[in-house]
Amino acid sequence: MTTSNDFPRVHIATDHAGMELSAHLVSYLGARGYEMIDHGPQTYDAQDDYPSFCINAARAVVADQEAGTRALGIVLGGSGNGEQIAANKVRGVRAALAWNLSTAKLAREHNDANVVAVGGRQHSVEEATAIIEAFLAEPFSNDERHVRRIGKIAAYERTGEVVQ
Questions:
Q1: How many CB atoms lie within 10 A of CB 55?
Q2: Model pTM?
Q3: What is the Cα–Cα distance from 62 to 78, expressed in whole angstroms?
Q4: CA distance 67 to 44
Q5: Which are the contacts of 96, defined by CB distance < 8 A and separation ≥ 6?
Q6: Which domains does the chain possess?
Q7: Count of CB atoms situated within 10 Å of the CB of 99
Q8: CA 72 from centre of chain
Q9: Catalytic residues, which ones?
Q10: Which of the residues in the chain have pLDDT under 50?
Q11: Are 119 and 81 in contact (CB under 8 A)?
């Protein structure tokens, strides 16, 4: 089964705070044709640390994209904040914290975000699922102004120089 949005591979990661949501999303999105790759823990540990899980998922998104494979990522935690920060440390990642349908769609449409962060303790499973589906379904607009702005971010990431 292929997906209508042409993003068949989704890398997902969480820590203990998002394990229930992550398991739901792997099953739910997998049943809808997404190829789900789970980078999170396999067992519950209230003392686990999210950075390695989220960084590994983000690295996999970039590796897939560099190889020509259409891929996006999902990182989950209690608030989504730390998970977004960790994912954004990976060169080539544009991770956006989404807390409603609008922020999820705008992350893709305007910022061409390739990873979405969601706080598993901030939403019901149904709300979080809707936010993530909105992110996965929304295409990048390719508007010149957005391409230009993303290019400036990428230039800074490569060179450390701020482009005006």
A1: 20
A2: 0.94
A3: 24
A4: 33
A5: 84, 103, 104, 107, 111, 113, 115, 116, 117, 135
A6: 9-159 (3.40.1400.10)
A7: 17
A8: 6
A9: 83, 110
A10: 1-5
A11: yes
pLDDT tens track for 41-73: 988 888 999 999 999 999 999 999 999 999 999
pLDDT of residue 33: 94
If you search the block for the tokens 């990522």, which residue do you land on? 73
- CB contact at 8 A, 51 and 105: no
Which secondary-structure segment (H or E) carries 6? none
β-partners of residue 138 are: none
User: What is the Cα gyration radius of the chain?
Assistant: 15
> Backbone phi, then psi, for 145, in 5-degree steps?
-65, -35
What does the block give as tokens for 121? 């303790």
What pLDDT, in 10s, does the model give residues 151-161?
Answer: 999 999 999 99
CA 71/CA 11 separation, integer angstroms:
7
For the chain, report the end-to-end CA distance as a whole number of angstroms.
44
